[in-house]
Amino acid sequence: MEEQLQQQNPQEQEGLQIPEITIKVLNETRRWTMFMAILGFIMSAFILLGALFLGSVVSFVPSDAFTTPFPTYFIPVLYLIIAFVNFMIALFLYKFSSRTKDAIHWRKPEMIHKALNNMKLYWRWVGILTIVAIVFMIGSFIYAIIFGVNTLQDAGFNYY
Q1: Residue 58 and residue 72 in contact, taking contact as beta carbons nearer than 8 Å
Q2: Confidence at residue 88, expressed as pLDDT on a 0 to 100 scale
Q3: Residue 77 lies inside a defined structural domain of this protein
Q4: Does residue 7 form part of some domain?
């Protein structure tokens, strides 16, 4: 009988001791991360559809119709990579949200640990993507300067 009472009212069990205000903040954060995770899954699906659409369109275009510095299958593959990365980020948010909900309900420290571990993984992915984006922007900036200088020299502009 005592065991049934404890299972019915998990809020009173021993274990995770978090102030009520912190639980309210975690619960509100959980709701927003669930919302963002669902949007991330939807966005991943649209990116995947875009990759499939581009893949089918590219297959009908003759290879000599236009010249690109990369193979024509590169863009659909790039879309697939972006869809995968976006899906993983949304998955970490979803796991954080669902495990935080369980941790709040059951008040077990190992559940909040698993939830926070997923939040850590989310921020790790976002951090790595940010570093990649910064490196890409710096590289693009350097490429634009070199390309601009070469174009001006080819046009006969003397900047000395």
Answers
A1: yes
A2: 96
A3: yes
A4: no
CB 78 within 8 A of CB 84: no
In the chain, the amino acid numbered 77 is V
| Tokens read off for 126 | 């976002």
- Quote the number of domains for the chain: 1
pTM (two decimals): 0.75
Q: What pLDDT digit, counting tens, does each position of 99-132 carry?
A: 999 998 888 888 889 999 999 999 999 999 999 9
Burial of 34 (0-12, 13-18, 19+ CB in 10 A): middle
- The answer as to whether 64 is a domain residue is yes
Q: What is the domain range of residue 84? A: 18-121
* Backbone phi and psi for residue 159, each to the nearest 5 degrees, phi listed first: -100, 10
Burial of 158 (0-12, 13-18, 19+ CB in 10 A): exposed
Residue 130 covered by a domain:
no
- Cα distances from 52 to residues 33, 80, 85, 91, in angstroms, run 28, 9, 17, 22
